[in-house]
Amino acid sequence: MCIGSLQKQRRLNNAKEEGMDLLLIAMSHLHVGNISTAVRKSGVHKVLSLDVTHAPRDPNALGQFGRGVILPSSEDEEVRKRWDEGHFNVYLSDRIPVDRAIPDTRPEVCSQAVVHDDLPSTSVIFCFVDEVWSTLLRSVHSVLNRSPPHLLKEIILVDDFSTKDYLKEPLDKYMSQFPKVRIVRLKERQGLIRARLAGAAVATGEVLTFLDSHVECNVGWLEPLLERIYLDPQHTPQDYVDVLQLLIGRNI
Ligand SMILES: [Mn+2]
Fold first, then answer.
1. Angle between helices 192-202 and 3-17 (to 10 degrees)
2. How far is the CA of 22 from the centre of ligand 1 (A)?
3. Which residue in 43, 57, 84, 90 is a FRET match for 130, CA 20 to 30 A apart?
4. pTM assigned to the model
């Protein structure tokens, strides 16, 4: 194992030993160490707000542009029936486009922030067990659609031995349309941290970014995270994730 791999392993093991129930970590990788010692000649730019979903296929779709949805009570039974598939309103999630547009909810200070032109690339790793189809796809689409392409090296989906058939061949087939998406299948249930290690083991990006498999990234989500690591590879950035998510991380 090379030194870089050992460092990566130690960071991940430390996260485990700390007992962190991590939902999202951005973690520096071997190559990021090089950045700190390199002579920086890079300029800066305002955080990019790339979003290919600005003009969605169906502007009237449920939940489009982040609109709230109130289902008629006649659909309560359907909602109840499917609730336990994900312990949230799976029925409604499945009716909202997986690549919907959402409003830019960032505070002004975030959208006006500047970052360096030569940020490191990242591998985004999603680990899941029996994730709901629509939320998993929404997570992937949001990363593909709202990340600067030159910074997104790949998306790695780690299937921690799911039982759902739709997460096998149908998922392979769906994701085959996206060259940046790779799927790693574990042969037995490993648990979250070992699943993340499996994703990290095959990652080729300079920074590892771990996301929950039921998120929706907004514009400008990635560059500020990478900027923190660029400025100091010993930092692992924490992010605030609206409503449900929490981002915690640490480094060696
Ligand atoms: Mn979660």
1. 160
2. 9
3. 57
4. 0.81
Task: Tell me the CA–centroid distance for residue 13 and ligand 1, in Å.
Answer: 21
Ligand 1 center–CA 116 separation, angstroms: 30
In angstroms, the CA 203 to CA 212 distance is 17
Measured CA distances, 113 to 211, 228, 239 (Å): 23, 12, 15
Structure tokens at 238: 């924490």
Residue 214 belongs to a domain: yes
What is the per-residue pLDDT across 63-116, written as a single tens digit (0 to 9) for each?
A: 999 898 889 999 999 999 999 999 989 999 999 999 999 999 899 999 999 999
Flag whether 54 is in a domain. no
Element (H, E) at 28: strand 25-28
Q: Report if residue 37 sits inside a domain.
A: no
Domain that includes residue 179, residue range = 63-251
